[in-house]
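re the bet — no i am not wrong, look at it urself. input seq straight from the record:
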Amino acid sequence: MTTTPTAGEAALGYEQARDELIEVVRKLEAGGTTLEESLALWERGEELAKVCRRWLDGARARLDAALAEEEQETGDTGGAGE
């Protein structure tokens, strides 16, 4: 699974995708749209959710890498005096 957005999605930041997704959900919940409009909104919502998930997965990977690096550095220096 890709942990960073694709080139086309990279222009859409996490906050932008999240805000648009919130708007899509609001429109779907409000009703009053045709079946075609509802399906188009649903599909857009699915795309936006994937963009958000990729950004979050990428952020998680970066945090995990930073924590692993910190643990390794701490382990290397902490074990020398024992």
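see?? Residues 24 and 41 are 6 Å apart (CA to CA). told u. also The mean pLDDT is 87. so pay up
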